[in-house]
Amino acid sequence: MAYSREQLAEVHAAVVRSIEQKDAALFASLYTQDGALLMPDGQVVQGRTAIERVFSEWLDLGFVQQEVEVVEFTSDNLIAVEEGRAAGTFRDDAGETVHCSNYLIVHRLEADGVWRMHRDIWTSIGGSSSQGASY
């Protein structure tokens, strides 16, 4: 069965929870075991353990909120592709910074019947900066 927009909304809600609860393990669990973040600086972060570590670093840098707008979504029975725009908010003693990006996420249906993010790539939109975090 194809991945639905309702299931996608549940994943987005889980990402929001992982930020609000500062739960890097929850965030990493949304990815396949060999999932990867392909970051704007060229760095590739592969595997749940590495994704959890990087997400924890973002939380330490003050990552407090993410908003997404899905621009296009397509799915078959094994693969789904999500394209959109995101705004990640970082807050620290110096104030608040919003980092905007365009993103593309490939979701994959796993053997356990759960859809997970497999590849997550984004590009920075000029003029936004997050003081050290690539997100």
TrEMBL record:
Domain of life the protein comes from: Bacteria
Entries under InterPro entries matching the protein: DUF4440 (IPR027843), NTF2-like_dom_sf (IPR032710), Steroid_delta5-4_isomerase (IPR011944)
Domain DUF4440 residue range list: 8-117
Organism, scientific name: Pseudonocardia asaccharolytica DSM 44247 = NBRC 16224
Protein name, per record: DUF4440 domain-containing protein
